[in-house]
Amino acid sequence: GDSVTQMEGPVTLSEEAFLTINCTYTATGYPSLFWYVQYPGEGLQLLLKATKADDKGSNKGFEATYRKETTSFHLEKGSVQVSDSAVYFCALTPPGGSYDKVIFGPGTSLSVIP
Amino acid sequence: NAGVTQTPKFQVLKTGQSMTLQCAQDMNHNSMYWYRQDPGMGLRLIYYSASEGTTDKGEVPNGYNVSRLNKREFSLRLESAAPSQTSVYFCASTDKTYEQYFGPGTRLTVT
Lengths: 114, 111
Description:
The structure holds 2 protein chains of 2 kinds. Chain A has strands at residues 3-6, 11-14, 19-21, 23-26, 32-38, 44-50, 56-59, 62-65, 75-77, 86-93, 103-104, 108-113. Chain A is mainly β. In chain A, strands 2, 5, 6, 10, 11 and 12 form a 6-stranded mixed beta sheet that branches. By secondary structure, chain B is an all-beta fold. Chain B has no helices and 11 strands. In chain B, the strands form 2 sheets. In chain B, strands 2, 4, 5, 6, 9, 10 and 11 form a 7-stranded mixed beta sheet that branches. Chain B has a 4-stranded antiparallel beta sheet with strand order 1-3-8-7, with no helix packed on it. The chains are: A mainly beta, B mainly beta. The A-B interface holds A 32, 34, 36, 42-46, 49, 51, 89, 91, 93, 97, 99-100, 102, 104-107 and B 4, 31, 33, 40-43, 45, 48, 50, 56, 58, 90, 92, 94, 97-105.
């Protein structure tokens, strides 16, 4: 079945360091791919998304490129800030959409220290 | 535009007590969801409602019931709470692009 795998956390970085959080998926066809962020004590919110191969989603300095050949959607940021400390979830929706099949990865916790 | 709202924010129950978690959205979305979030388990879908008047089981429905009261509201009921239901509960709704909009969560402790 469809699934999402994320790198294990927690990840701890110094401010201004480069961030990569790996995400790979298993799905038939071309799913839509998402990154959500959850700040402490809050619900998840969409960070960025991509709906077809080679699309690049970007927001708040974060980027992720939909790579069909490697079934990946890695999240990157060139210079992290303390305010980026949060849990990041990779997710997919199967091609054509399905209300009961929004699949989330387990989440990767990021801590950025000054 | 409040988005997705949930009440209460915190709740402590004794084993066997019942309660209803309330959720409402003002974005005119057809689909709504209830998830639970536990450490190391990520998000798990409890129930969802693809449209007003329909509800379906998700991954972990046992011990829960839901009601889609109207297009805006989707409630989750625990009839007889158990310690295993201690969790953070999130309601979400989705638009046609399948982007999920989450509420702030309800932190439930069952003793």
